[in-house]
Amino acid sequence: MTEALAASRRLIEFIDASPTPFHAVTSSVALLEAAGFSRLDEGQAWELAPGQARYVVRNQSTLLAFRVGQEDPAVAGFRLIGAHTDSPNLRLKPKASYVKEGYRQFGIEPYGGVLLATWLDRDLSLAGRILVRGEDEARLLRIERPLARVANVAIHLNREVNSKGLKLDKQKHLPPLVGLGAKGDEGWLEELVVEELGLSDAASIEGFDLMLYDVVPSVISGIDREFVHAPRLDNLGSCHAGLEALIGAAAETSFTQVVALYDHEEVGSRSAEGEDGPMLEAILERIVLARGGSREDLHRAKAKSTFVSADMAHAVHPNYGDLHEPRHMPRLNGGPVLKLNSNLRYATNSASARQFIAACCAEEVPLQRFVNRSDLACGSTIGPITAARVGIPTVDVGNPMLSMHSIREMCGSADQILMIRAMRRFLCDS
To answer: DSSP string of 254-286?
Structure first.
């Protein structure tokens, strides 16, 4: 197996083990601890020494890992990579279970910019976390068997669907079919959770954060195995690349290496564990203070730092090529994409991009560029939020992909190792 295919197989193993942000952080912790990283408690005092590899978890859905540099941050600064653990999906409402027309159903709410039609007629199941009375940390739940289906309506009852398109009402048309039941049948979701987790009774369930996911495993496909088909590539692909880069980076650098994996990017990042919250700057300050520095030293460190915001990028689609800017058409297996927008939907500028470009050149990794068509609205990332909130020069990058925000997305099988190599060099070069 080639190095590229091996990296893609590790990627799909990571994705398949991570149906929710909570599972993604658990998968990330497993990789980090196997590489010698140990956990820090935000509620305890920190003592840090050069070379130490540590990580912090917040809300079970956001993780920040770092390796302490040989020099004080005020002297050498930070090299940072950021990505996000969440993906658009369908999430259960608090009073989720009900019966309608003889069918058991879940009340759901779309999370983020879901490509809704792709969730129809798929084999779905349930995953997330359950708060159990008397237990400090929530338990993770993942039901691996097919459990639910958002059933499409027959074409005989919607004759114009192919000519006028499928129109979905989020409230009426998205609740999945979970089973058969009678009117007044209640409590069956709690009974299912009790059975799956081996709890004593439903009264021990204090709360939950549950969501639907596709149970079909990720695959490598194509005539020459060129493609990866998987859910949540946006943005677990970037999370995985950042983790492998940090784990494989040189253990002794002058600067401190940081990888931050945030929740809630798909809904604006405004939470205690999102990038628009205080977590990153607070942890950077604690690293500086634990190394004997001051608040003044934090500002000195930020002035010598660079942040790589990693989020998947739009590859040109052969059936929709006219939706791309003609001279900026990233292609699958063409290498990482540098994302630019004059209106600062991306944080990249010529100065902030220099170190990442240099890392790609040093590794002989090809670098593509993406600019949105001027007559189409541009999406955004954690990049501009980081640059504005923390004040660190930031560059937006990502691997090219198709079907972004679909239940099942697509990328190139050669691109993951290219991004890992570029990120690793960025975290190592002085």
So the answer is: SSEEEEEEES-GGGTS-STTSTTSSHHHHHHHH
Range of the domain at 369: 3-87+231-428
Rounded CA gap, 37 and 39, in Å? 7
Burial 44-63 (b: 16+ CB within 10 A, else e): eeeebebebbbbbbbbbbbb
Tokens 């007559």, residue located: 375
Model pTM above 0.85: yes
Any residues with CB less than 8 A from the CB of 381 and at least 6 apart, and which? 265, 309, 311, 339, 345, 346, 347, 396
Burial of 325 (0-12, 13-18, 19+ CB in 10 A): middle
Residue 38's Cβ-count burial label (10 Å; 0-12, 13-18, 19+) is: exposed
Residues in CB range of 42: below 8 A, 6 or more apart: 56, 58
Relative to beta strand 205-214, strand 62-67 is unpaired
Q: Could you tell me if residue 282 is inside a domain?
A: yes
**Are the C-beta atoms of 179 and 104 separated by less than 8 Å?**
yes
Residue-wise pLDDT tens digits, 253-262: 999 999 999 9
Q: Report the SS3 class of residue 294.
A: coil
**pLDDT 10s digits, 53-90:** 999 999 999 999 999 999 999 999 999 999 999 999 99
Residue 181 located in a structural domain: yes
The answer on 105 and 45 residing in a single domain is: no
Please indicate, yes or no, if residue 396 is contained in any of the structural domains: yes
- Is the residue at 101 inside a domain? yes
Rounded distance between C-alpha atoms, residue 210 and residue 208, angstroms: 6
Q: Do 249 and 366 belong together in one domain? A: yes
Contacts of 337 (CB under 8 A, 6+ apart): 313, 330, 367, 368, 369, 370, 397, 398, 399, 400
What are 29-39's pLDDT values in tens digits? Answer: 999 999 999 99
